[in-house]
Amino acid sequence: MHLGILSQPSNFHCQKWAKALQNAGHTITVISLEPYTIPNVPCINLNKKDTWDYQDFYFTRKKLKEVLKTEKIEVLHPLHLTPYGVWGYWADFQPMIPAAMGADVFEYLPYHAIPELAYRHWKNLTFQPNFFSRLKNWATKSFHKSMVKKVLMHSQYITADNQTLIKALNEYFHVPLEKLVLQRWGIEEEIFHLIEESDYTYVLQKYGLDAEQPIILSPRGLMPVYQADIILNAFAKLVSEYKNYQWVMLSAGYSIPITLKSFIYSLEQKHKNFHCIKVQIPREEMAVLWKKTKVFISAPIYDGYSAAIAEGRYVGAIPVVNKIPGNEEVIQNEVNGIIVHPFTPSNLTKTLKKILDDIDTWYSQFLPINQDWIQKHGLIQHDAKQFSEFLEIKFSSFFTNL
Q1: What is the pLDDT of residue 268?
Q2: Fewer CB within 10 Å: C terminus or N terminus of the chain?
Q3: Rounded Cα gap, residues 152 and 292, in angstroms
Q4: How far apart are CA 106 and CA 271, in angstroms?
């Protein structure tokens, strides 16, 4: 089956899922507005500029429609309801099965559902919302939410990568449960074996890291939605006490809030074992960092099925998470990870101290449980096979009758 994926080919979610579906026997074409290419996966860029913004999807809708026809795309599979699902909706293509991801849905929920959205939404970088920023956020949120609703109505099915997303789509967007499909994207095991162990030192030194010291990692990024300010405060209290560890914050390619830049700079100057990596790390090199990680912290205010948590569990690192439904689907407190609640600097600091003061016990307890679960339920080739079987059941007769 020829699947047209609408996404950014530079995005690792797109790369891993496109390759997995290709390996499952599908013909894959990725269509986007950026000139990035994925090795051995056909990529078509419909943008003549170096940059793009939201309205470019609208103005290229007719071009997209032509390309879908020329390429003989059978099923359109946008990754994200917006902007890529909206792009497919504007091109008026069917059948379409968009993949809903965390921000696609949770950003548009009412504040009573996720109170932190009032000041930790995706685009907030200041932590100082005023009247005008609130007004702008309300108008933008209302428009995008209306477009998401249209995408959901237009689509034959919608995949979601955890039950929390499915519940939100059903409860707040009134999508019938029969249109919602649980579809995770798991671990690509091969990524963890692309770099030879003899090259690990070179990779780590490339990012200013010591090849011998184990890592305490915050992998999600520094945006307010990831509660990086709380994690940084805990790191600041512990970095000098636990000098035998490297305390590493990743920006993950996202912007850094202005309120954190000076704090990060100060910690970098004071502590040689604190590092903030401000570039997006290639997937195969990120696997090397994971292999050096003993403890990782993932604490967004909302989440789908987290690739970071899955990768951390795969290498056996100790998960430290906040108490949100998405995390509780995969982490049981003191069974295969630690849930910090309330998620405050003082509680996180106490929890990390408790772990590090008895790390061998926690590590040996959690590692076999997490690695066994990932092998049984969290490998991407199994997910691609499951999605292929779904497509065969739902659409084989559709194309036979055309």
Answers
A1: 95
A2: C
A3: 41
A4: 37
Question: Tokens 């100082």 label which residue?
Answer: 128
Rounded-to-integer distance, Cα 317 and Cα 293, Å:
6
**Which residue shows structure tokens 């020329």?**
70
Measured CA to CA, the distance from residue 173 to residue 186 in angstroms comes to 26
Q: How far apart are CA 333 and CA 353, in angstroms?
A: 16
Euclidean distance between CA atoms 175 and 224, whole angstroms: 29
pLDDT digit string (tens) for 199-241? 999 999 999 999 999 999 999 999 999 999 999 999 999 999 9
> Can you list the residues of the chain whose pLDDT is less than 50?
400-402
Count the neighbouring beta carbons within 10 Å of the beta carbon of residue 131. Answer: 7
Q: Number of C-alpha atoms within 13 angstroms, CB side, residue 319?
A: 33
Pairwise CA distance, residues 384 & 28, whole Å:
13
d(CA 50, CA 35): 8
* 19 token code pair: 């390759």
Question: What would the pLDDT profile of 16-34 be if each residue is shown by its tens digit?
Answer: 999 999 999 999 999 999 9
3-class secondary structure, 320: strand
The encoded tokens of residue 314 equal 């795969």
**Long-range CB contacts (< 8 A, 24+ apart) of 237-244?**
237/345, 237/349, 238/349, 238/352, 238/353, 238/356, 239/267, 239/271, 239/273, 239/274, 240/271, 242/216, 242/356, 243/273, 244/213, 244/214
Query: Do residues 319 and 331 make contact, with C-beta atoms less than 8 angstroms apart?
Result: yes
Task: Report d(CA 180, CA 388) in Å as an integer.
Answer: 16
**pLDDT tens profile 55-75:** 999 999 999 999 999 999 999
DSSP 60-93: THHHHHHHHHHTT-SEEEEBSIIIIIHHHHHTT-
How far apart are the C-alpha atoms of 169 and 203, rounded to whole Å?
Answer: 41
